[in-house]
Specification:
Length: 72
């Protein structure tokens, strides 16, 4: 089955822009209208187990930063 990264924080107002970076700062995901469908892939390939860092920009102009860990 497939796992998706679900953003469900009540403070975040959809639609949202999501950008995800690896530990080196390289962008591995970018979506300007995120619909809770990221499967932890980059260019169609599964990313390795690791911690990745995200920036979410919501519909009210607020930014949220944090980390998401991929475990396979």
């Amino acid at each position: 089955f497939k796992d998706y990264w679900i953003v469900n924080d009540a403070q975040i107002v959809f639609p949202i822009k999501v950008t995800v970076y690896n530990r080196s700062g390289r962008k591995v995901y970018d979506n300007s209208n995120y619909q809770n469908t990221w499967e932890g892939q980059y260019n169609g390939n599964p990313l390795p187990q690791a911690t990745y860092y995200y920036i979410i920009e919501d519909n009210e102009g607020k930014s949220f930063k944090g980390s998401v860990t991929i475990i396979r």
